[in-house]
């Protein structure tokens, strides 16, 4: 099993009052990838990190094997969700993958 963790900060131009709705849409659509992307087992979306955190939101996923991480990244369903609900609003992506 492989864990794939991604963290982002919101772009400075994103207003505070917009963030709850954006987080909800991100969570809903990213979680909806389970069953659509081969090898993707679980998705957790972290909307409320502790104040000690360096990033605003995080995605914590598990995949069956290491090769699935690369396949997930280019899968059309994932790309569509990322391009529509995540990438337009975030910056400073950090990623950590481990077995």
From TrEMBL:
PROSITE patterns in the cross-refs? S_R_A_B_BARREL (PS51502)
Pfam families found in the cross-reference section? Dabb (PF07876)
Its transmembrane ranges are: none
UniProt cross-references to InterPro entries, sorted A to Z = Dabb, Dimeric_a/b-barrel
- Which SUPFAM superfamilies does the record cross-reference, listed alphabetically? Dimeric alpha+beta barrel
Q: Which domain of life is it from?
A: Bacteria
The Stress-response A/B barrel domain extends over 2-98
PANTHER family membership: BLL2683 PROTEIN (PTHR37832), STRESS-RESPONSE A_B BARREL DOMAIN-CONTAINING PROTEIN (PTHR37832:SF1)
Protein name from the UniProt record? Dabb family protein
